[in-house]
User: What shape does this take?
Amino acid sequence: KRRVVVLISGNGSNLQALIDAQRHDELGGEIVAVISNRGDAYGLVRAKEAGIDAVVLPHQEYDDREAYDRALIKVIDRHAPDLIVLAGFMRILTPMFVHRYAGRVLNIHPSLLPAYQGLHTHQRALDDGVAEHGASVHFVTEELDGGPVVMQAVVKVGENQSLETLVEKVQAREHLIYPIAARWFLEGRLRLGAEGALFDNMPLPPTGLR
Ligand code: GAR
Assistant: This one.
């Protein structure tokens, strides 16, 4: 079985979507550990309830990013994962980390990348009055929120859309697309090529699709 380590910082609703997919045999692998940089992350409770090894690695206890990432690598390597999934992990990773796991780290970002990299994506989209917003799954590279996009989910932004309902709509789509992207990777149908994400052996689109 392919092994997955999930990194979180908070609620862990995307982690939950991955756990649910695994439970339904739709993940193509097994979540062997969840690591959080925050001890109060609710996702840790979700992990424990699912019987998954939950590890807290508080970033405050390390002098700098390099030291933190070295510790993170130690924990991750104990679990020998095929795939590392960032699910609301709110830390910038060092080039050392990114290179060590090149092509094996996926992230989900709450915008239609390359639009709205960084933080407060939903509020910025609302402030700009965009008609469409969404979420992107992408490979993690040295470029923050800049790695090749694998899959996106689009939501329409209503005239009087509130921040709260927009977040809700986008997150609901995140929970649909992230387990699919993870499964594609774990089944060997998705990989990072020199020019971007590559897809193999995908099911044929339904006839009549334009
Ligand atoms: C998700 O909406 C994810 O897209 C976002 O954090 C949320 C985590 O929710 N990620 C980022 O902003 C990454 N920069 P969750 O903990 O409930 O999965």
About this structure: The mean pLDDT is 96. Residues 18 and 179 are 5 Å apart (CA to CA). Strands lie at 3-8, 30-36, 53-56, 83-86, 105-109, 132-139, 149-156, 190-193, 196-199. The pocket of glycinamide ribonucleotide is lined by residues 8, 10-14, 43, 87-88, 108-110, 135, 171, 174 (CB under 6 Å).
